[in-house]
Amino acid sequence: MARILYFVSGHGFGHAVRSAQVVRALSVLGHSCEIVSSAPRWIFEANLKGVAFGHRDFRGDVGVAQVDSIRNDLPATLAGWRELLAASERWLERGLKICRAEKPAVIVSDVVPLAFPLARRAGIASALVATFTWDWILEHYADDNPAFREIAGLLRELYLQADRMIYTPFAYGLPALHPAHEVSLIGKRAAASKAEIRKRLALDSRPAFLVSFGGCGINDVEKMELGKLKDFQFLFHGGKRPANGNIITVPEGSAAHEELVAASDAVITKPGYGICTECTLNRTAMVYTSRGKFAEYGPLSREMQQYFPAVFIPPEELLGGAIGAYLEKIPPFTPAHRMDAGTGATEAARIIAAMAWRPHPASGSGGSNDKLV
Q1: Which among 2, 100, 154, 285 would be 20 to 30 A from 34, CA to CA?
Q2: What pLDDT is recorded for position 38?
Q3: What pTM does this model have?
Q4: How many Å apart are CA 373 and CA 88, to the nearest integer?
Q5: Domain spanning 3-187+344-369 has what CATH number?
């Protein structure tokens, strides 16, 4: 049995949910994982029930600072990345202590950039699991502030130190790493049918829509005026929002997120890898809004329409009580919509497991003369 050190971005919940699926698949193969992430432990626990894993709270990246799901804070983003990179030597020293304690055979990262110079310094094989990297995301803001281009260049050099890359559909702007392995989508398909889940949730015959905006949440949900749309039911996963007529809160633990996706006629959301994967695997449509200026948004919002019906609603109409008209014009699935096996976690785990038994050429002697950033 090999030990895997798995670094996970703390930006939103999508990276954590995706990584948890790979950790579960590695466990099935007999390997154990120590997760290193600023994403809260509970999100891994929710997705790794029955799987033993370790968790260390360790900030590995900044991502894009956000006011909420659809508004970015670029000054805070730039300041955060500058601070992290300026402290890279301290970060790497802490990482080496973790390596000495855990003795991993492989370091995996989704998509923490400093994990790769750490692996080189420790003499450990490394794999990047990604659908984008932060250099590509930050380069998108260079016209707002040229300093983002410099940060992006530094991050790109860090990613290029990975030994190999694993990616799935809905991947964009990735570094030129070889070998690179394309696998199926990494996500979750509901085990029960739509009818079974709706019956368990006591939903009636009205169309149901899951309102899902991930780890960053969305402000002013009340402005959507969902309570006025009595011909529809609206589902919220977790939280303390009280049930109110056609607005239904499903407590954590009583249903998995992918089950709510499967039970819904469409998901009201912003496009991101996780929700696009769940809509694909559970054959659910989407009503989506802009997520502000974010490099992934454009290509993802175009490609996702090959997999499921998707209707765009401008943010001002979403938060202006105008969503009802959009819910009435969602097109159906057609034979032209693509499908996916959804077995990417198992495929990725097999690639990572194979790395654990190969000798790694790095000597681990790097020392203080290594050029990191």
Answers
A1: 154
A2: 97
A3: 0.92
A4: 8
A5: 3.40.50.2000
